[in-house]
Amino acid sequence: MRSLRTDEGTLSRDYLAAASEVLRELVAMPDLVQRLPLERKAGGYTRNLLAGNDAVSVWAIVWAAGATTCIHDHHCSCCFGVVSGTVTETAYRAIDAKRAVPTEEQERQAGYVACMLPTGPNIHRMRNLGTGDAISIHIYGFDHEAHASSIETQYTAIGG
After folding, report:
1. If you average pLDDT over every residue of the chain, what do you get?
2. Binding site residues, as ranges?
3. Is 92 within 8 Å of 101 (Cβ atoms)?
4. How far is 98 from 96, CA to CA, in rounded Å?
5. Strand partners, 31
6. Which of 94, 105, 132, 133 has the fewest C-beta atoms under 10 angstroms from its C-beta?
7. Where are the residues linked by the 3'-(S-cysteinyl)-tyrosine (Cys-Tyr) cross-link (predicted)?
8. How far apart are CA 4 and CA 8, in angstroms?
9. CA atoms of 14 and 3, how far apart (whole Å)
10. What's this model's pTM, rounded to 2 decimal places?
11. Residues forming beta bridges with residue 72, ordered by sequence position
């Protein structure tokens, strides 16, 4: 957690670089993460808080086969790395305050790391289209005790 502290806080390029480095280290050690006592939910995804403070929260997310998030954007910085399996990320473009159209879809495989600031929009949906579990680590720039989630806005898909 100390390495995620920057003078500029969680809305800076320095923070993104630090979070990216932490994630690269974690995804390079899948056995360590897979040995953690992570909760799982059949058909869905389960968020497991690994660490948190007043500025940052770190979560392991276990994606069961078929698990999917809503289409959403974040109120905070969002960084994630895939530890095992494949998570499909679909990017969207808002057409109004509540509707969005898909623009791109990518398979994020073990070892993949991405970071983004909430200057977006960074609208996306994450899914596990595989037949087994996938695990990802997410570092969000928010206090898990002050906010229930990193999601700011949910969207409905139009087309695609």
Report:
1. 90
2. 72, 74, 124
3. yes
4. 6
5. none
6. 132
7. 78-140
8. 11
9. 11
10. 0.90
11. 124, 154
Residue entry with tokens 């500025």? 55
9, pLDDT greater than 70: no
Percentage of the chain beyond pLDDT 70 is 92
Nearest to 151 by CA among 91, 71, 43, 57: 71
Report how far residue 34's alpha carbon sits from residue 117's, in angstroms, rounded to the nearest whole number: 28
- H helices of 5-153, in order, are 13-27, 30-34
Report which of 10, 15, 27, 17 is spatially closest to residue 61, judged by C-alpha positions: 27
29 phi/psi in degrees, rounded to 5: -125, 60
Q: Which two tokens stand for residue 131?
A: 């037949």
Q: Which residues are annotated as a binding site for Fe cation?
A: 72, 74, 124
Residue type, position 136, single letter: S
Domains and CATH numbers, the chain: 2-157 (2.60.120.10)
Residue with token string 């969000």: 140
Cβ neighbours of 18 (radius 10 Å):
21
